[in-house]
Design goal:
The protein is of the alpha+beta class. It is built from 18 helices and 24 strands.
């Protein structure tokens, strides 16, 4: 039992102000839950770091009311997608992949899948949007405050922190603690979260610089330019990478180093030499802004919590930036956890509801760590097509690259191998299914006892919407009066929603009779919401009199495909489902 009076008291303490911590604070404050964020740093992110923002994350930001601000500050989708493979920006081009939803068929799939569009929102721009909105809604933010340790008991967690300005320590008493303190998470270590995989499998260097590269990039607009050059296969992420931060004058280079030999001395001269090699133009003015070394990791937590301590983001999944999954998964972790904490804190749900956080998010974390590292390996065939992996002189690599232009049978085969190897990178740059096909299995999902049909096509490449319990509610455009809106716009905002159609009056009455606040949405001719395109009728997988119960995070928790036999039957079925979802049953 806690006896010593703490210096500060709150409901939820969040350690870390990165994408996971900031999103958790924003969601909790949006739901009215008192929370404090502490970060050891004196400011938010000052380098671009994470940047790809996928459709599922944009749906979360839409639900939390900050989508428009992100869209206004981000690089739009149409400037992201001509991923180019070359010998340098000024050198020879080897091929391109239409990426991030910019291939026409994939673009159509994106339009059908969501009301949102993916974008490129660098972390140093994203964090202020999330944190400013969180603080405006009630979050208390403390910079220069270092997490030191925690002690938990049956009623809460007492956390000791150090004020870096004053040099003293004090305690914060919270009912729950969220460790969102990144890839070297002290909270995760102190909580003893079991980890799989390994850290430090390769070495990489980030170099942030300013240079006007318009003449090499504007005609093939992209977020990423991959450079195949001597030394590019050493460590890192498989090739030299020139990443656009802001078109076309802010950039970040990723270059590898031999992790066993240690990082090189990151002088300005060294950084500029790497920039010159990858850009391939010694005349363009370059300003080095920063450089830093990091390691490629392949590690994931098998459990995301210990008692009242929960971890999210890079604290639980550590991987290279391939596929652009880092901040996306972090923000989605926070969105999954926040509504559950809210309902437990206000007494609506049993603490057992919180067990579903690990059950639902740990498999996602493991999947994305595996996918990101697999994508690194999928760069090797591009080098193989040019015989560029075996030890050789730079002159030999350039000769191999030049040989692809010969009018010979060998060169023809080489060109075909190179095209195939570049096209296979679709698993990194257009993995729509990885972004949107997350399906949950937990005690907070009520199965409907139907056979899972699985996926018709590759589940990593293609999104397959379904209303099966554990899947995200399918997006369809519907109308309400003169407004056109997504089905996703009718759910969320921190509450459960029952979606039904004409013939679902018993379900509506059953929802209104629950102790839990449940919004009701009726879709059909003459109802508040109509389905003029017939898209919802095609996607819903339930009859007009059936019902879906959708959680605050937009996931289907309960499905009954047909009309209930009676009002009493609807009330019984829905009550049993709600009790199970909230951990009471």
């Amino acid at each position: 039992m806690h006896t010593v009076e703490p210096d500060v008291v709150t409901d939820v303490l969040i350690v870390g102000s990165g994408p996971a911590g900031a999103a958790a604070a924003l969601a909790l404050s949006t739901y009215g839950v008192p929370n404090i964020v502490v970060t050891r740093y004196a400011s938010l992110a000052d380098t671009p770091r994470a940047h790809i923002t996928n459709q599922r994350t944009m749906e979360v930001l839409r639900d939390l009311g900050v989508e428009d601000e992100v869209v206004a500050k981000a690089t739009p989708q149409h400037l992201m997608g001509d991923t180019t493979f070359c010998t340098s920006l000024a050198g020879e081009e080897l091929g391109r992949v239409r990426s991030w939803g910019n291939e026409p068929l994939v673009q159509a799939a994106h339009e059908l899948a969501s009301p949102t569009r993916m974008c490129d929102m660098p972390q140093h721009l994203m964090e202020p949007v999330l944190v400013d909105a969180a603080v405006a809604r009630g979050t208390n933010l403390r910079f220069s405050t270092v997490y030191k340790s925690f002690v938990q008991d049956d009623e809460g967690v007492t956390v000791t922190v150090e004020d870096r300005l004053r040099g003293d320590t004090y305690t914060i008493r919270a009912k729950y603690l969220i460790g969102a303190d990144g890839g070297r998470s002290q909270v995760a270590e102190d909580a003893g979260l079991p980890m799989g995989g390994q850290m430090g499998v390769a070495g990489s260097i980030n170099i942030v610089f300013d240079a006007d590269l318009t003449k090499y990039t504007a005609h093939r607009p992209s977020t990423l330019y991959w450079v195949l050059a001597p030394g590019a296969t050493v460590g890192g992420i498989g090739a030299g990478l020139v990443r656009c931060v802001r078109p076309w004058n802010e950039w970040l280079i990723v270059w590898g180093y031999d992790v066993s030999a240690g990082a090189p001395d990151l002088t300005t001269e060294y950084a500029e030499s790497v920039v010159r090699q990858l850009v391939g133009d010694d005349e363009i003015p370059v300003t080095i802004k920063s450089s830093s070394a990091w390691t490629v990791n392949e590690m994931y937590a098998e459990t995301y919590s210990d008692g009242r301590v929960f971890c999210a983001g890079d604290a639980t999944h550590r991987h290279p930036p391939s596929n652009g999954l880092g901040s996306n998964t972090s923000i989605q972790d926070a969105h999954n956890l926040a509504w559950k904490l809210k309902l437990v804190l206000d007494g609506t749900a049993s603490p057992k509801l919180l067990d579903s956080y690990t059950a639902e998010r740990a498999p996602v974390g493991r999947q994305i760590v595996t996918r990101a590292n697999k994508s690194i390996g999928e760069t090797a065939p591009i080098f193989e097509a040019l015989d560029g992996l075996s030890p050789q002189t730079p002159e030999q690599l350039w000769a191999n690259i030049a040989a692809r232009k010969d009018d010979t049978e060998a060169a023809q085969k080489q060109r075909a191998r190179l095209r195939e190897a570049i096209a296979f990178k679709v698993y990194e740059f257009n993995a729509h299914g990885v972004d949107l096909n997350q399906r949950y299995t937990s005690d907070s999902i009520v199965p409907d006892d139907t056979d899972d049909p699985g996926f018709d096509r590759d589940p990593e490449l293609y999104h397959q919407p379904t209303s099966r319990p554990g899947a995200k509610l399918p997006h369809a455009w519907i109308t309400s009066g003169t407004r056109t809106l997504s089905t996703l716009d009718t759910v969320g905002r921190g509450r459960f929603t029952l979606v039904t159609g004409i013939g679902g009056a018993d379900w509506v009455r059953a929802a209104e009779g629950q102790d839990l606040e449940i919004a009701t949405v009726v879709i059909g001719p003459g109802q508040e919401y109509e389905d003029p395109y017939g898209d919802w009728a095609r996607l819903s997988e339930v009859a007009d009199g059936g019902a879906l119960l959708v959680r605050p995070d937009g996931y289907v928790a309960f499905r009954y495909a047909t009309a209930a036999a009676s009002g009493a039957d609807a009330e019984r079925l829905l009550t049993e489902a709600v009790r199970r979802i909230l951990g009471h049953g």
